[in-house]
Amino acid sequence: MIKGSVRGGHNYGVTGASGIVNEVTEDRKYYPLVIKGLMENGFDIQDVTPTRTSTIKQDLAHGVNLANSNGSSFFISCHLNSFNGSAKGCEVVYSSSSGKRLAECIVNELAQLGFYNRGAKQDTRGLYELRHTKMTAVIIEPFFCDNEEDVGIYRRVGIKGIADAIVKGVCTYYGKPIHNEAPKSTFKPLPLKMAYDSPAVFVRDGFMNIVKFFYRNDLITAKDEKLEYYLVDIDGIKAWIPKRATCPR
Prior knowledge:
Layout: E1 3-8, H1 23-40, E2 44-47, H2 56-69, E3 74-78, E4 90-94, H3 97-111, E5 117-122, H4 128-132, E6 136-141, H5 148-174, E7 190-194, E8 198-204, E9 207-214, E10 219-222, E11 224-226, E12 229-234, E13 237-242, E14 246-248
Helix pairs in contact: 1-5, 3-5
């Protein structure tokens, strides 16, 4: 069984970035799902997140020392990025050649969620977690917490979307099949036009949200179907439209 160490970035004593959302608040939501997903896929994972420390060095050393002592094959530190409000996208930072490959696998899955792919980034700052770990190690920055577009995508895909992408990236790196993954749809894109006016909607937190209003004779392409609805992609947002509101072109 492959052993790994995962931690949430920073802690409530040594806080991280703050923007539209707070880094520590959000990484504490998604990193446990990364651990859960990896364990469901046959990995032996240790949570090496500190609860609270007084200094940055104590915070960083806590996770690194535990990972180095438990025989882990890989180390993942979960963060959020921040800059000036205009920078956006996902990136994963690495130092070693094995870290580069793991970073590429993870960042490519995060980009599938709709984030701009900033790629696997080689560490040029001598980051503590990458310098002092003895195994393949990466620092994950799924999105910028001070960028409206990124936060919008995050709110759409949720913490599970972020975690699932990371888990899939790790499984890809190790050549492991993904368990509990939804079967791939065999639905082929279907060109349609609107038979009458209707909104395309998505449901979040129990509320129906209108993404776009389509009018009679507007052209659409269904990407999938579920019961009495077709799935359409609107600028990266997956929305549903009633089948009865459409007809063949």
